[in-house]
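Hey L., structure's done. Input below.
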Amino acid sequence: MHGPASPGWLLVALCAATGAYCLLRMRSGVEEQRRAAGGEALMGFGMAAMAVPPAAFTPPTWAWPGFAAVFGAAALQALWAARTGAHHLHHLVGTGAMVYMAAVMATAPAPAHAHGPGQGGSGIPLLTGVLLLYFTGYVLLSGVRLLPVAGAGGPAVAAAWSDRPEVARACRLSMGIGMLAMLLTM
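Output:
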């Protein structure tokens, strides 16, 4: 890395690329995939916007409550959708984490936005630790799900690029890694 802003820009690029692919996945012929892709695109672009290094752009004071409001609305939608599937619970945790990070950034003094972990605190707050554990487990499980299964060499079915489950899993994995990186800098 060439400087403290490099990891931030890499995270911005990862999250923006994931958000862009999720937008493209919204063209899927399967309604549930379109709906999930929309929420994931919001997460990807929101994470990219929140990860911009403060040396390049310091958001105005109203931006953090704005992020909290947008992701709070997304959390309510995920809560409503969680009645029908467990994957929506992950969306609920993710949007809740985004609300939490936006609230922390809104209440942090301006110089704290540029500091990394361990800068003037008494350790990791409990909620940050719980979210770190959750997303670590999610990333490990998502990574294992990407591994090829022995004996699954059945006939390949040609799927549309927007309906490829392995690519959707890879996007979710990259967003989980991005969330871990963001939580580590809290």
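Residues 16 and 45 are 5 Å apart (CA to CA). Residues 112-120 have pLDDT under 50 and may be disordered.

-- N.
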